[in-house]
Design a protein that fits this description.
heterodimer, A: about 550 residues, alpha+beta, seven-stranded mixed β-sheet, 12 helices, 20 strands, disordered C terminus, B: mainly alpha
Chain lengths: ~550, ~200
């Protein structure tokens, strides 16, 4: 199987649920003007593609990577599965440079949901009004009331397995599927939480606890973050992409979009892309950029043209700015009993205690935290990342693997203007300028992390752990094309629509004005569902055309 | 070094439902098709072999788990981790400069080639590199500390613990598809996992 040849061709696409299977796919020619060209097929792009094609729009989705066949191609092996990550040249800089690649970047149809840890949490209601209600950050343009129904829609689509009674108010109804039985790491989190008198529960996970269509229940292989080989995981590749295909969308794999093109009237005309070494142009009435927090601003900046010399959608100068992440230092301890933390999904128990406690913390923002379960290569990298841990010391410490357990926060970081993505002069294999990603923690971020490490260290000791230590880490990317209430302080409006170019949209994690204290994937999918619904409604009212843009009154 | 699971062998389950074809295929390559030298010069290769022997000593293994060949392979194929720090050049250049920098440090500090040093002296040189106690000119402006932690130790640790023999050593279950696990609680294990460790 040649990974470099496209598979979604000649009117068929891979059927991810059957070995060697194919499924019919509508195929557009470059000359046809499609309603939407969507760049990127992850949590944002795939979800929106399903929604828009189901609403009757013609849609072509582009992804730079392969259309995977999980049943045949996903090995139980960390090294071999490296193929799932975005590994084109990128530079990471700042006082606290972010580890990219496996940590937060996907390449291939389904994007990074193919290797995400399946944690499906809602942001806290107050996060959407964090400036007004909690005194920090910036309010989101979307209200809780506006997004809540779409959280429900996304949870149903993913058949999220979670508790009947979620302990925090963002989720008041039972999850679609029953919660998973806990692994040892999850049990230890629960044991500590009970003793310390804080609430906890089984993590709501997007891997099914009972059959769903052609997805079998999770068998707890534990290789979730290097790709699920059974399709129990409800990634965009097995949830939204099949829906989009069925509704008439075309998926173009191995197709790297190099420019969004703009006509003389200042509107997008389509996208230029490379597939099988040939440069082509797809005409489109609307372009959606959904390449996540690095590739989305990079494409907009690389698409600079005479009308928009600073890049597209960049009238505010904020494309690439306000990158946020989650701080996620690992806190580890040795236990007398064997834990074997690598069994089952890596993060099976959660507490949002410090995401909902506002008083007496000494910092703004919050963090949820989960039990951890790194596979051996990841664990070795974590250990070897500590000063002096090499040689016989490394081999000796690794022998403790089966007795280790860990907890990790998903810690909010401040939206700072100094953190972001810019273009370097150096170019990649397509001749495109490569991105430089700059990140530094703020004092508040550091205070939050210190609190997290201290508290989680206490928890591990209460659970019976000894020799507690912590290791630095980050997770997720958010921001860089923030949505907002006005064109001066944001890149797009609350529907993901560019303030400058009315037929250009953004739909992915780069929309986030703040990071919030939980994993972003469910929120990205909820936003995509909402944007899909909004576009459908606007089209019905004739507000989608460029001319209508100026007269629309935004609620 | 006391082996906690002396009799356990992940590969004993090769034909069991814990392995599938996709996994067998990639592991067979790792076990049987060790790459030849293509990227490094012979001198670089020998130096890297000596460095690797200090970063992951394998006195208990004959033959040792191969690491240098896979680093060479990764560089020849230009397989990256997906990012580079702004104080490092592109990876191929970083490895060449790093190996030259370590050699320069050995010559400067102990007046001998790295490969001719005693293991203790080799460790001394590597510790200097880890701490950044080097002559900047020897490193062409690149951060020695960053090279040591982000590329050298990171990659060597990755390759050792990606080998099934290392999984057996630490009691990792290894491949788990399609079978997975049933008994997941504290102190629990399935019959197809590593046995309870040997008690001292």
């Amino acid at each position: 199987m040649n990974l470099e040849s496209p598979r979604a061709v000649d009117g068929t696409a891979p059927d991810v649920f059957r070995v060697g299977g194919v499924t019919p796919m509508r195929a557009f020619t470059d000359k046809e003007i499609v309603d939407f060209a969507i760049v990127g097929s992850g949590a944002g792009g795939a979800t929106l593609a399903a929604k828009l094609s189901e609403a009757g729009f013609s849609v072509v989705v582009f992804d730079a990577g392969p259309f995977w066949r999980p049943l045949e191609e996903f090995a139980s092996d960390e090294l071999a599965q490296h193929k799932l990550y975005w590994t084109d040249e990128r530079v990471t800089a700042g006082a606290d440079p972010i580890v990219m690649g496996a940590n937060n970047s996907g390449r291939g149809v389904g994007g990074s949901t193919v290797h995400f840890a399946m944690i499906s949490l809602r942001l806290r209601r107050e996060t959407f009004k964090c400036r007004t209600r909690l005194g920090y950050g910036v309010d989101w343009p979307v209200s809780w009331e506006e997004i809540e129904p779409y959280y429900t829609e996304a949870e149903r689509a993913l058949h999220v397995a979670g508790p009947v009674n979620y302990p925090w108010p963002s989720k008041r109804t039972p999850y679609p599927y029953r919660e998973h039985e806990l692994n040892a790491s999850g049990q230890l989190l629960g044991r500590a939480a009970e003793k310390m008198g804080i609430k906890w529960c089984a993590t709501p996970l997007a891997t099914v606890s009972a059959p769903r269509g052609k997805s079998p229940p999770c068998v707890y292989r534990g290789f979730c973050v290097v790709g699920c080989a059974t399709n129990a995981k409800q990634s965009a590749l097995v949830v939204w992409i099949p829906r989009a295909l069925k509704a008439g969308a075309e998926i173009r794999d191995m197709a790297m979009v190099t420019r969004v093109e703009v006509g003389r009237d200042g509107l997008c005309t389509g996208v230029t892309y490379r597939r099988e070494g040939v440069e082509r142009f797809q005409r489109a009435r609307n372009v959606v950029v959904a390449g996540y927090s690095v590739e989305t601003p990079r494409l907009l900046l690389n698409s600079a043209c005479p009308q928009f010399p600073q890049g597209l959608a960049n009238g505010s100068g904020l494309v690439g700015k306000y990158l946020t992440i989650h701080s996620s230092p690992g806190v580890w301890a040795t236990f007398e009993d064997e834990v074997r933390m690598w069994k089952g999904p890596p993060n099976m128990a959660v507490s949002e205690h410090w995401n909902y406690t506002d008083e007496g913390k000494g910092f703004f923002g919050g963090y949820s935290f989960m039990s951890q379960g790194p596979l051996p290569v990841t664990w070795a990298q974590t250990m070897a990342g500590q000063p002096g841990v090499w040689g016989q010391t490394l081999r000796d410490r690794m022998l403790n693997y089966n007795h280790m357990a860990g907890l990790g926060p998903v810690g909010e970081t401040e939206s700072q203007l100094c953190n972001g993505v810019e273009l370097m002069d150096e170019v990649d294999q397509y001749g495109l300028r490569i991105p430089k990603i700059t990140f530094s923690y703020s004092d508040n971020d550091k205070a939050l992390m210190r609190h997290g490490v201290n508290y989680l260290s206490q928890m591990l000791e209460v659970a019976g752990g000894r020799d507690v230590f912590s290791t630095p880490d980050t997770s997720h990317l958010m921001g860089t094309c923030r949505m907002g209430a006005d064109s001066a302080s944001s890149v797009v409006d609350k529907d993901g629509r560019s303030w400058d170019i009315p037929n250009l949209w953004v739909c992915d994690g780069s929309l986030f004005p703040t990071s919030g204290g939980v994993n972003p994937s469910l929120t990205i999918q909820a936003l995509a569902c909402r944007i899909g619904g909004r576009i459908e409604a606007m089209a019905k009212r004739g507000e989608l055309s460029a001319q209508a843009r100026e007269v629309v009154v935004w609620a | 070094m006391k082996r906690p699971y002396p009799t356990y062998d992940v590969l004993a389950r090769w034909e069991s439902p814990s392995f599938n074809d996709a996994t067998r295929e990639v592991l067979a390559e790792r076990l049987e098709r060790t790459p030849e030298r293509r990227f490094f010069t012979e001198a670089e290769w020998d130096r890297l072999e000596a460095i690797v022997a200090r970063l992951i000593p394998q006195p208990d293994r004959e033959p040792p788990i191969p690491i240098t060949p896979w680093i060479d392979h990764q560089l020849q194929e230009d397989r990256t981790e997906g990012y580079r720090y702004d104080d490092l050049p592109r990876q191929a250049e970083a490895w060449r400069r790093g190996l030259a920098g370590i050699e320069a440090q050995a010559q400067r500090r102990l007046g001998k080639a790295f490969v001719d040093l005693t293991p203790d002296d080799q460790d001394l040189v590597l510790r200097c590199v880890e701490l950044g106690e080097v002559e900047r000119d020897d490193w062409g402006g690149m951060s020695a500390q960053r090279f040591f932690s982000a590329l050298l130790v990171h990659t060597v640790a990755t390759l050792y613990y990606a080998h099934p023999a290392a999984w057996s050593e630490i009691g990792f279950g290894g491949p788990a598809g399609p079978r997975g696990y049933v008994r997941m609680g504290v102190g629990e294990r399935d019959p197809w996992e590593a046995p309870q460790e040997a008690t001292s």
